[in-house]
Amino acid sequence: MNIGKAAEASGVSAKMIRYYESIGLIPEVSRTEAGYRDYSDKDVHRLRFIRRARDLGFSVDQMAELLALWQDRGRASADVKRIALEHVAELERKARELMEMSQTLAHLAGNCHGDDRPDCPIINVLSEQDGCEDGCKDREPDAAGHCGGKADQSHEHAQPRFGKTGIEPDRKRRHGSD
After folding, report:
1. Where is this region: Disordered (predicted)?
2. Can you give the residue ranges of every domain in the chain?
3. Is the pTM of this model over 0.70?
C-alpha cells in the first residue's frame, strides 16, 4: 500500500512516517518501480505501535527502545517495565510542575483587579529582573538562597521554579498554611 493508505491505516501522518524513516525509527520500505513507497501490513503494524507509544508520550528514543524490545522475543519484561516506570515518573513530575504553574497563575490572576487601572501583579511578576532587588544580581545565591550581598547574610533570592520564568507560587499557599 502507498504512504497515504499506510497513514490512514496506522493513524500516523505521511509526514511523520517519512520523518520516522529518515531518523531510522522505522526501516526504509520497499519501493515500486515508479519509486513510490510500498508498505506491508507488518509496516503498518509497526506504525500503529509507534502511534500508541507516541500517544502515551514516549520520546523517540524510548520508542526506539520499545520497538527493539517488541521485536526481541527473548526480551525480559523487566526491561519494558523499567522504561514504562521511568516514563511514568517523568509524566508525574511534569504534572506536578503544570499544577504548580496553574496554581501560581491562578494566584496572580486572583490578585489582579482586572479593571481599567494599569497596575497588574501578573505583568509585575513577568517583568521582574533576574537577581535580587538590592543590585546583587551578579552574585549567585547559595543553596539557601543567600547571595552575600548584605552584611547580615540574610538576604534571600526567590528560587526559580519554572525554568527561566522564575515565577514561584506563594509559599504559604504552596505549603498549605494560609
Report:
1. 133-178
2. 3-72, 82-174
3. no
The verdict on domain 3-72 having CATH code 1.10.1660.10 is yes
**Of 55, 56, 46, which is closest to residue 20 (Cα–Cα)?**
46
Q: Which residues pair with 37 in a beta bridge?
A: 31
Q: Give the mean model confidence (pLDDT) for residues 13-28.
A: 95
Burial 69-97 (b: 16+ CB within 10 A, else e): beeeeeeeeeeeeebeeebeeeeeeeeee
pLDDT digits (tens, 9 = 90+) for 135-165: 555 555 444 444 555 443 444 444 444 544 4
Mean confidence (pLDDT) of the chain: 81
All three cell numbers of 126, joined, read 513577568
pLDDT tens for residues 87-126?
Answer: 999 999 999 999 999 999 999 898 888 888 888 888 988 8
